[in-house]
Amino acid sequence: MSHRSRFFHAGVLITVAVVLSGCGAMSAQNPGDGLSPINGIANETDDHVILFGADVVAYFTDSRYVQGLPEHRSEYEGVDFYFSSAENKAQFDANPLAYIPQYGGYCANGIVFGIPWGGNAEDFLVHDDKLYIFGGQTSKQAFLLDLDSNLALSSKYWEEEVKGNNSFWQRAKRLIFRVPHYQSGEEQAAAVEAAGQAQQ
Q1: What is the pLDDT, as a whole number, of residue 24?
Q2: What is the value of pTM for the model shown?
Q3: Which residues of the chain have pLDDT under 70?
Q4: Fewest CB within 10 A of the end CB: N or C in the chain?
Q5: What is the CA radius of gyration of the chain?
Q6: Helices (H), the chain
């Protein structure tokens, strides 16, 4: 893509961002407090529900995705967390930082490329007592191909670019001005398939 074409696309995305700046999804993902941005939604009662209301404690205690309930709710730094039980809520309240998903609950593999998007509550990894969310099984498998390097890259881009910034602007920027190691979904799927064949 030429520089002129890139700037044209950037201009289009900026225009779209201005139009969408008041939309619910953008507002839900950018609470503006310490945990911003987050992979969040808004509902009738709460503006910034992280991970579609998944119980973040259950990933550690049950090793699986469990949907939380609004009646077991906590708020931490402007973000709403739902839990499946009063016990899990109490566990979170005693030490929130132990349970909050890394990178705002966005796909950890996307953050490797500086892109805050995706993240399914069902696709996760608990590693070194930290919770990582992924946009699907292929995304998780691609991340695991070089876990240490990808953890270093995702932490770097989160701290240097994504954390505290608007998710939409960051996403638009890094979809146009891609990181040097960028890989498309198709390229990552091919790498995962090749790694699987090599192990056979």
Answers
A1: 60
A2: 0.87
A3: 1-24, 33
A4: C
A5: 17
A6: 3-20, 24-29, 58-61, 86-94, 108-111, 137-144, 147-157, 167-176, 185-199
